[in-house]
Specification:
The complex is a heterotrimer of chains A (287), B (223) and C (249).
Chain A: H1 20-31, E1 35-39, E2 43-49, E3 63-67, E4 70-76, H2 78-99, H3 105-118, E5 130-138, E6 141-147, E7 153-155, E8 158-161, H4 165-179, H5 184-197, E9 209-215, E10 218-222, H6 225-242, H7 246-265
Helix pairs in contact in A: 4-5, 4-7
Chain B: E1 17-22, E2 26-32, E3 35-37, E4 40-43, E5 49-53, E6 56-62, H1 64-85, H2 91-104, E7 112-119, E8 125-130, E9 136-139, E10 141-145, H3 148-159, H4 178-195, E11 202-209, E12 212-219
Chain C: E1 4-5, H1 16-23, E2 25-26, E3 32-34, E4 37-42, E5 45-51, E6 54-56, E7 59-62, E8 68-71, E9 75-82, H2 83-103, H3 111-127, E10 134-142, E11 145-151, E12 157-159, E13 162-164, H4 167-171, H5 173-179, H6 186-203, E14 211-217, E15 220-223, H7 236-239
Antiparallel strand pairs in C: 1-2, 3-6, 3-9, 4-5, 4-13, 5-14, 6-7, 8-9, 9-10, 10-11, 11-12, 14-15
Classes of the chains: A alpha+beta (287), B alpha+beta (223), C alpha+beta (249).
Organism (chain B): Ziziphus jujuba var. spinosa
Protein name (chain B): Proteasome subunit beta
InterPro entries (chain B): Ntn_hydrolases_N (IPR029055), Proteasome_bsu_CS (IPR016050), Proteasome_sua/b (IPR001353), Proteasome_suB-type (IPR023333)
């Protein structure tokens, strides 16, 4: 197999101006099970797909409460995600201790990104193998950020990361313009539908997804399973009534997306096998 | 230049009295809202009562800056506890945490005199009483602060709790009903206000029971 | 402020305990001090008043020190006590606000945040036995919310509808308690502050008749030019204070 000369150290540039170790870390994000976030003016909803690692085990927690006004959903190395969410919790507690007011979301995200960036520039470190969707509310409104291992961060109206997230992104891209004025409940519904898109035809059940909400007058919390199942039941009937309008389209998008993803993501000369797990269920990198 | 100020002290006594009474299924925690320094009143509306968890409430008097630092530290520790255990801390657990926190500063103590009241895991009222460096005891009722010397003997007399020396140990909770306990608290504060210059202005009463948490206020003498 | 060492002039200093105290560098007493600051909430925001004197013991050393300063967009800070410590504190706050502005993200520190920050600074310094020798008054308005609080040298802090430091707590607060109400207009607020400042001027030896009044509302702050109060010293008790006290000088 072809061996890449420039991918053994984080701090080594390739002649093409790339940092392969950092890119590999971003591959880890793509292989984690999907996480989705979307926001209106007042609310942000996070959703994620729970995949058990084995028949015998339960799934790992992928959504963490950081503070009353901030929460994260992760995709990639869950262990790294836990470390970062612990860091975020302690930053929030410290800020609150000094100012007795909540830490603005954007500032926490920058601090987090700076922390991730340091790992891309030190020979004795490795980048975090986790992508975080940070949902939060502050005086400038509701926010949704995506933080990635490279130290880059972006603000989104709606976004999805992790395996087969392209399907969810396609759905979100079709609908995101309505989100701004969405009600909280519609936002949750859209989150569930987007989650279903990533399941490739598998039935959406509350046991395989987690939903969390933060918004005006509503501190960050994870919805309990019964509530989620009720919501799913409610809209699954509606969708059945509407007919298969969205279903086949979504399936087609998904197929294209998977190919597109495999085509563009696999960096030249890398042997990570991105996209190799498509459809294989449990993500190996999440262990 | 000659020295004009007295030697600087890192402590002040901002006064105030606290009382807590535990019943079979309730707990009453009360404190006045006056904050003083020397012979002056700084403010007439400063709450000395701090809700630390769903079922534990702390009332503190002494040096306000230390009390505030203590409250903030406990609040932060409780947040961490919630993140790690996904539940509220129980009152006995908070009592131990408070003791450890106070003892941690054994050689530069928090100048704060606390009573912690709440409901234990069985829903029974509990009161923990402390000294400034963390020694504590679970009791049926207690008073701390500048008026405690006036209030405590009155409570002893009225509540007639079984001696802690009895064997086998008797339950320390008071036999009063919730309404009787609230009335008693109002009486002791009205009395303490008569003689203690650091107690007065307003009484804040927090009542914890199975229904949740409730607050009451009563005006006190302002002189 | 300027650090100084404790050294009792002619006492031999050989006890290790005394030595450790002698080695420590800390403010043992203030040098140049400002006297009371008073402030109150009124209908649209906060009003604050302070005179401009700086006393070196009983010497009037400075006559034009500004003891009320704006902090960010939403807060006013007034200080009594050691003036150099206050000016150092202003440098901390300048940096704090600068970093806050540099985020440029639509969030900003309001009066509550600044007050809490100050409380932490004061309390941390007292924990190090190296206090900033001030009583601070912080007032401001943000998002329609009026805020007025105080912090002492050792970190004691509280909020109230009206506050006063030093002599003001003895002389001005009783007047404020008597006359203050929620719907005070700007004019009435200023009148009330002037009444308090006049009492302080008559009774506080270190007060000077040159003061500033500052206002902060949702629209922003204004700090007045220095001005003086009209006083009347012609009372017979002032002119011949011992006339009714036979047998004294």
């Amino acid at each position: 197999m072809f061996r890449n000369q420039y991918d053994t150290e984080v701090t080594t540039w390739s002649p093409a101006g790339r940092l392969f170790q950092v890119e590999y870390a971003m591959e880890a994000v793509k292989q984690g099970s999907a996480a989705i976030g979307l926001r209106s003016k007042t609310h942000v909803v996070l959703a994620c797909v729970n995949k058990a690692n084995s028949e015998l085990s339960s799934h790992q927690k992928k959504i963490f409460k950081v503070d009353d006004h901030i929460g994260v959903a992760i995709a990639g190395l869950t262990a790294d995600g836990r470390v970062l969410s612990r860091y975020m919790r302690s930053e929030c507690i410290n800020y609150n201790y000094t100012y007795e007011s909540p830490l603005p979301v954007g500032r926490l995200v920058v601090q987090l990104a700076d922390k991730a960036q340091v790992c891309t520039q030190r020979s004795w470190k490795r980048p975090y193998g986790v992508g975080l969707l940070v949902a939060g509310l502050d005086e400038s409104g509701a926010h949704l950020y995506y933080n990635c291992p490279s130290g880059n961060y972006f603000e989104y109206q709606a976004f999805a990361i992790g395996s087969r997230s392209q399907a969810a992104k396609t759905y979100l891209e079709r609908r995101f313009e309505n989100f701004k004025d969405s009600s909280r409940d519609d936002l949750v519904k859209d989150a569930l539908i987007a989650t279903r898109e990533t399941l490739q035809g598998e039935k959406l059940r509350s046991s395989i997804c987690t939903i969390a909400v933060v918004g005006a007058g509503e501190p960050f919390h994870i919805l309990d399973q019964e509530t989620v199942q009720q919501l799913i039941d409610a809209f699954e009937i509606v969708v059945d009534d509407e007919g298969p309008a969205s279903e086949p389209g979504a399936a087609a998008d998904e197929g294209a997306a998977a190919e597109e993803g495999a085509g563009t993501d696999t960096g030249a000369g890398t042997d990570t096998g991105a996209g190799a797990d498509q459809g294989s269920g449990a993500a190996p990198m999440e262990i | 230049m000659t020295k004009q100020q007295a030697n600087w002290s890192p402590y002040d006594n901002n006064g105030g009295s606290c009382v807590a009474i535990a019943g079979a299924d309730y707990c009453v925690i009360a404190a006045d809202t006056r904050m003083s320094t020397g012979y002056s009143i700084l403010t007439r509306e400063y709450s000395k009562i701090c809700k630390l968890a769903d079922k534990s409430v702390m009332a503190s008097s002494g040096f306000q800056a230390d009390v505030k630092a203590l409250q903030k530290l406990l609040a932060a520790r409780h947040l961490i506890y919630q993140h790690q255990h996904n539940k509220q801390m129980s009152c006995p657990a908070m009592a131990q945490l408070l003791s450890n926190t106070l003892y941690y500063k054994r050689f530069f103590p928090y100048y704060s005199f606390n009573v912690l009241g709440g409901l234990d895991n069985e829903g029974k009222g509990c009161v923990f009483t402390y000294d400034a460096v963390g020694s504590y005891e679970r009791v049926g009722y207690s008073s701390q602060g500048s008026g405690s010397t006036l209030i405590m003997p009155f409570l002893d007399n009225q509540l007639k709790s079984p001696s802690p020396l009895l064997l086998p140990a008797q339950d320390a909770v008071t036999p009063l009903s919730e309404a009787e306990a609230v009335d008693l608290v109002k009486t002791v504060f009205a009395s303490a206000t008569e003689r203690d210059i650091y107690t007065g202005d307003k009484l804040e009463i927090v009542i914890l029971n199975a229904d949740g948490i409730r607050r009451e206020y009563m005006e006190l003498r302002k002189d | 402020m300027e650090k100084m060492t404790l050294q009792d002039s002619n006492q031999p200093n050989n006890s290790p305990l005394l030595n450790s105290e002698a080695d420590s560098q800390r403010t043992l007493y203030p040098y140049v001090t400002g006297t009371s600051v008073i402030a109150l909430k009124y209908k649209d925001g906060i009003l604050m008043a302070a005179d401009m004197g700086g006393s070196y013991g009983s010497t009037l050393r400075y006559k034009c020190v500004e003891r009320i300063k704006p902090i960010g967009k939403h807060s006013l800070l007034g200080a009594s006590g050691e003036l150099s410590d206050f000016q150092e504190l202003l440098r901390y706050l300048d940096e704090l606000i600068l970093y806050d502005n540099m985020w440029d993200d639509g969030n900003s520190l309001g009066p509550k945040e600044v007050h809490n920050y100050l409380t932490r600074v004061m309390y941390n310094r007292r924990n190090k036995f190296n206090p900033l020798w001030n009583s601070l008054v912080l007032g401001g308005v943000k998002n329609g919310h009026k805020y007025l609080g105080m912090v002492s040298m050792i970190g004691v802090n509280f909020e109230d509808n009206h506050v006063a430091t030093g002599f003001g707590n003895h002389l001005a607060r009783p007047i404020l308690r008597d006359e203050w109400h929620e719907n005070l207009s700007f004019e009435d607020g200023v009148k009330l502050l002037e009444k308090c400042m006049r009492v302080l001027l008559y009774r506080d030896r270190s007060a000077v008749n040159k003061l500033q009044i500052a206002k902060i509302t949702e629209e922003g702050f204004t700090i007045s030019q220095p001005y003086s109060l009209k006083t009347f010293w012609g009372f017979s008790a002032f002119q011949n204070p011992t006339v009714g006290a036979e047998g004294s000088w």
